[in-house]
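We include the pair:
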Amino acid sequence: MIQVEEAYLNHLIYISEHDVLTGVLNRYGLKKRIAELFNPEGEGYLCVADIDNFKTINDACGHMVGDKVLRAFGQCLETITNSSVARLGGDEFFVFIDGIKTNEEVAKEFDALKERVNALVIPELGNLKLTFSLGAHYFKGDFDEVKAIAYTKADKLCYESKKKEGNSVTIA
């Protein structure tokens, strides 16, 4: 009986911290993870990413296919080294990368991400290739002080990426 209650409690904790559709963290889970990982004078990258033309995918292929795309993209994002990934809503994801200190290092991670996304095969999409836009903002210092500014900057950088060809990343 105790094992059943413990398993149920662990399940409740999991679903309170994870996005049910994609399996990545939700906002609450991300906040908790960052609090666990982050030291007061840390550094890393805050990133905002979304899937290009996601509404078109949903409209043309249906929401079930859209859900497959969201899950696959979330899994690709989770392969970034030292990352914590959360789905903010719709096709927007937040990525917190801890410990990477240079634009060159993070650019290598994003190049690998582009390759993984390019390699995705979702049969229902036919010849349509999945692409994404991502903005990454470097931060250093007290996370509580920089998070709102860094998120706003990463979000703006993501929109800059959307103006370019697919699988575009803008880092600052």
Notes: The chain has six helices and five strands.
